[in-house]
Design goal:
Blueprint: E1 9-10, E2 29-30, E3 51-58, E4 62-70, E5 74-83, E6 89-97, E7 102-103, E8 112-116, E9 121-127, E10 130-137, H1 140-143, E11 146-153
Parallel strand pairs: 1-2
Antiparallel strand pairs: 3-4, 4-5, 5-6, 7-8, 8-9, 9-10, 10-11
Length: 160
Amino acid sequence: MQNKLTQAGKLLNLDGSLSQVGWSPQPLLDCNLENAHIYSLRMFQRLRIKRWDYYAVFTPRKFFSATIADLGYAGNIFVYVLDYASGELHEEGLVVPLSKGITLARNSDQGECSFNGKEVKLHFQTVPQGRKISVSWPGFHEGRGISADIVFHQPPEHES
């Protein structure tokens, strides 16, 4: 039987170990990755911690996804669009040295995640009614471009 978490708290103890082990239908633990202890030299910690925010939308005709990722040593920005009827899949991605221009929220239930590059902008935001996803990529798919503003409604009692 798995342990259901019921108490809010920190994800990591001061020594870097998990404070609680189990599952929860809602985010309860503060993602305090500053307590991670991967290397004895703390300046290298950031290079090993991987974090991302990913969204996918399925409709009867198309699939769309967008991701902002911080891999520590680099960032990764990508968008996919699949047309089911034609089978055409198009994806664009950027590798961002040292994750420059990437901001990720500390916790999944609040804040904003964004990438603001010269030609590409992704913005994911927690709003009162749920999540708002915005993408602006004029050069996407050989200059055809893509622009998206999507709101995912998420009732407070919804499991996540």
